[in-house]
Amino acid sequence: MANKKVNKLPYDKEHDIKPLVAYFAIVNEGNANAVVEIFKRAGSSFQLIQIGQGTASKQIRDILGIEDNAKEIIVSFIREEKVKDAVTELSAYFAASKRTSGIGFSVKLTGLMGVTMYQFLANLA
How far apart are alpha carbons 28 and 33 in whole angstroms? Predict the structure, then answer.
């Protein structure tokens, strides 16, 4: 029995490729789970949480009224079209309390290895 070779078009020729971003949020310790949930609702399929330490000295923290400089860094991979919704909800979350604060920024991904990785990060699989 001969093996038939199936000529399949490349993934990007059969599907609409949505741009992806990595969104970085640096928040006070204890806020990472809320950020993760916000991005999950917006369509993110994958988040990383890393523990961090702020760089302000005790003297500066005392002046600013900051008790602790423990931080959590969250990296969420999400389709670019969904970032605005996530950031709007994130802003509302942080505006709700003076004890919650953070900073966020996004980096557009320009390439990935493999269709499966793209499908996973784009929440298409």
Answer: 11
pTM of full prediction above 0.70: yes
- Calpha distance 98→34 (Å, rounded): 15
Q: How far is CA 49 from CA 8, 9, 40, 112, in A?
A: 38, 37, 14, 21
Domains and CATH numbers, the chain: 17-121 (3.30.70.120)
Q: How far apart are CA 11 and CA 34, in angstroms?
A: 34
Torsion angle defined by CA atoms of residues 37, 39, 42 and 46, in that order, rounded to the nearest 10 degrees: -100
Question: What does each of the 125 residues of the chain score in pLDDT, given as a tens digit?
Answer: 566 667 677 777 787 888 899 999 999 888 999 999 999 999 998 999 999 887 778 888 788 777 778 899 999 999 999 999 999 999 998 888 777 778 899 999 988 788 888 888 888 76
